[in-house]
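Hi V.,

You were right to ask for the full record rather than a summary. Here it is.
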Amino acid sequence: MSHIRPITPQLAEVAKRQLNENATQVESHLKVIRSWLVELNLQTSLVDDQFLIAFLRGCKFSLEKVKKKILLFYHIRSELPQIIQNRDPYDADVLKIIRMGVGIPLPATEQPTDPKIFIIRVGRFQVSSCTFADIMKVGTMINDIVMRDDDQMVICGMALIIDLKGVTASHLMHFEMELLRKVAILNQDASPLRMQGIHILHPPPGAQTALNIFNGLLSEKNQHKRIYTHGRDLKSLHEHFSPRILPQEYGGDMESIDTIAQQWETKLLDNRSYLLDMALMNAQPCSSPTSGGKNVPSNNAFGVDGSFRKLNLD
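Predicted structure:
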């Protein structure tokens, strides 16, 4: 029997209508994925049904897409040790990054089936005291918790508000292209969380080049999502997001974003054990049924068309 958190009737309707979720087939889908993971000898002790249902929903219950996405999830994390490892939220260096509050999910939406909002305040990245990889480490820690806990974000997706206020050339110099490319894979192709729109605030003079680079890092699917540039006009932002659900700093009625960031600090500290466990999830060679016990991945073993071999991450 599966162990999945119940969802509201509203979310269940969205999952059925948009994600092809059929309550009578969930258990059989989970069984197939569990058996497949055991066959690959991946770290199944860290994978529970709530983790798997996020991927099923993110892939609209296509088993082949789930297999590809999960394999990529494991593999790309092994390619990014500087982001996935050493993520103890009680560590002084990690806690310092958490308290910068660069990436913060907002708690509320107008409707219970609206995409959740994730604000990224790039200018809060203190380039003199940390690296871009450090910032992404904390962002990935937040994503790991959201993927497990936030049914609305998993089912309805998320809208990004990228605030470029305070961004300077020194920020852009810290964005290594190879690392950016792998992070883009981590947060798009390897993630069950679906993008539902991107909103750019406070672009600095000459930011178009950086925005073009950002657009080039988007997956083909996300390039077709709407990207809005609002300049410094909060009224333009409010045409898409009611002030009732935005923090004070964005002309909203909610508590300040720094207060929300403090709440996330507490949540990360409370989930220390889970975050350390998730750092163990990375790709390991597996013995295929036809490899004679040798650690040689095969198409048959993966159940998808050359998932590891065709990632071209190096």
